[in-house]
Amino acid sequence: MRLIPLIGALAALTFTATATAQQIDSVEVRDPIHMLTGKGGNIGVLIGEDGTFMIDDKFAPLTEAILAEVEQLGGSAPTFLINTHFHGDHTGGNENLGDAGSTIVAHEKVRERLAEGSEIEAFDMVMPPQSGAALPVITFSQDIRFHLNGETIDVFHVPAAHTDSDSIVHFRDANVIHTGDTVFNGFFPFIDTAHGGTLEGMIAATERVLTLTDDDTRIIPGHGPLADRQQIQGYRDMLTTARERLGKLKAEGLSAEEAAAEQPLADLEEEWGDGNFSADQWIEIIYDGV
Ligand SMILES: [Zn+2]
Prior knowledge:
7-stranded mixed sheet, binds zinc ion
């Protein structure tokens, strides 16, 4: 792949020294579930008498600020911590929280990829091999169900989507979903094709989210603002259009660069191209996974 400058993407997905000063803010999703924003992937947190249940943990230097925000909301260090996938902007706090006594739960591929270490070429991002408290201690291959704080929470794997390690979290009673990075709300999503991600799998994961939602569902995306069902439908439609057009160009034998030069997603750029990737960049990032 041609090396392309991804300044916006870098800011969103990697941690820079300047970000240590960044605050963690919280948004009420539906009591007692909150979304924590700030650098890195969105955190979901359920707080109650049975303990704190948290989804993802951003970057290690933010753990203190995250725990301070959770405390403000009446919680404490998570009893359970879910990793939606292995990327460092969602698992960077694992070691800190593992040391603080959290039980980390994830799809088996998350543990495998964290233990192996990984490199994301597109962002020049290297994750060294992790061990000990940084690794999930409970892993699953399909799904797992939690019962705490009056909630029934399903965590289920969606294959070959943003990576090969993705899970979606469904709070059945509260009607809230955390999609992990299968949804970037409002912009072209990163698909990690070097680690098993595919456009087809992103579409399938989004379809699965839609089957679980109604007009009242509140959806925490991996990146971007809180979403409703209508926004997820728009996102699904964008992905489907991209699959159709890029699939055609790929079948004609065009390379990623040649496909991008055809400007097949020019009409989608205004709505989806200003958060992370331009249409050209996005095509080159995901083309292997089309
Ligand atoms: Zn990710």
